[in-house]
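Dear support,

I submitted the protein below through the web form. The confirmation email said the job was done, but the results page showed an empty box. After a refresh the structure appeared. I'm attaching both so you can tell me whether what I see now is the final result or a partial one.
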Amino acid sequence: MRIVKARVLDDYGWIVRFWLDDGTHVDRDFAFVSGPAFDPIWSDRRRFKSVKIVDGCPTWVGPDGNVVDLCPDAVLRGGLGRGRPMRFAIVGPAGTLISGRGVRSL
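What the results page shows now:
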């Protein structure tokens, strides 16, 4: 599976929907992700919402011009964030919940 598109789902939360090349999508909650590379992006809502997919990697450009990207395998498997797994849902093309942990299907 490869990530082909991303979009932040709302104006207040930290959930990003990632569309995959097999027609499914994965929702990830980035509320617990922090650190020197992420904090400048997470503190600017417009910047956080500017997520792009570059060669399959979720990518943001920080205020200093530095690029922050995430390993797509970590995003797909939910393995990000200081020992706390990201909450996620994998949703099929018809909106059916395939699997999930702690978040409702949208």
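Response: this is the final, complete result; the empty box was a page-load delay. The chain has one domain: 3-101.
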